[in-house]
Design goal:
With 294 residues, the chain is mainly α. The protein is 76% helix and 6% strand. The longest helix has 88 residues, at 11-98.
């Protein structure tokens, strides 16, 4: 080409040079189109492979996601079942404990916080069971001791009451002059002795009554009675004792019928009047009653 260009001086030579350049350009264009076509083909193949790989990876991802969801669901079901079972066991054990069964235990084997909670509950119940057993033994021991004390108390009261009855009888015989006439001072002395012996007999009777109540062996003989009559008998019994302390003792109970045990009502009124006289220096003591309802 250089030589042609140097020698170019005529139209023929210029024509040959132009034709040669056109062929070279055509060859370059053909080569360029071939390269472009090959590049396009390689690009399409590369995209095809990428799309295939993407589709494969997408299917794999979906499959893995489904597997993960299935595993998660199974784990959730198991955890939910374990939680429900653990709570149920704790509730059942607690209900048994509230009903007095201190041997109740929650056997939880989940390996989590619920198992720790069940272990703590079992330790707590073990302590309660131990303390409860100790308490029951103490109560039984106290019951036996109390029963023995009540029995001894009852026996002692009977032993005290046994000699009092003949002493009272003998004192009454003395007062009535059945064993010989008494002087005024002797009669006064016998009266004081008789009054105190009767008070002692009454105290022992009260003790026996309390013992019967504690033993649950008290009997009631109820019938229709006039409360005014019962109160009048109590006033008559304490009239002299009240007068010695300058106390006015009276009853203001009207005619009033009641279904009761007259002996028990008399005992109650006797104790009330006796305490009232004992803790009153002077004044007035009145027995009264009010009917309410039927």
């Amino acid at each position: 080409e250089i030589e042609l260009e140097k020698e170019a001086g005529s139209e023929e030579k210029l024509f040959l040079l132009r034709e040669l350049q056109e062929r070279r350009i055509a060859h370059l264009l053909a080569t360029s189109q071939s390269v472009t076509s090959e590049t396009t083909r390689l690009k399409e193949r590369a995209f095809a492979r990428l799309n295939s790989a993407y589709a494969t990876n997408k299917s794999t991802s979906i499959l893995l996601t489904l597997i993960l969801l299935a595993v998660t669901a199974l784990v959730s079901v198991k955890v939910s079942r374990d939680i429900k079972t653990s709570i149920s066991m704790l509730i059942e054990a607690n209900e048994e404990a509230t009903q007095g069964n201190f041997k109740a235990r929650a056997h939880i084997r989940t390996g989590d916080e619920f198992q720790k909670l069940g272990k703590a509950f079992n330790l707590y119940m073990g302590t309660i069971e131990k303390k409860s057993s100790q308490l029951l033994r103490t109560i039984e021991r106290l019951k036996k001791s109390d029963k023995a004390n009540r029995q001894m108390f009852l026996n002692t009261s009977h032993e005290l009451k046994t000699p009092i009855t003949p002493i009272i009888i003998q004192a009454e015989l003395l007062k009535k002059g059945k064993l010989g006439k008494l002087s005024a001072k002797q009669n006064e002395s016998v009266t004081i002795m008789l009054r105190n012996m009767k008070r002692l007999d009454s105290l022992i009777s009260d003790i026996l009554e309390v013992s019967r109540v504690q033993a649950g062996s008290i009997n009631l003989n109820a019938s229709e009675n006039n409360l005014r009559t019962i109160a009048a008998e109590v006033v008559k019994r304490f009239k002299q004792l009240a007068a010695q302390k300058k106390i006015s003792l009276s009853s203001k109970i009207p005619e009033m019928k009641a279904y009761c045990d007259p002996n028990r009502i008399e005992e109650v009124l006797t104790n009330l009047v006796d305490n009232a006289i004992k803790f009153t220096s002077q004044g007035r003591i009145t027995i009264s009653a009010v009917k309410r309802g039927n």
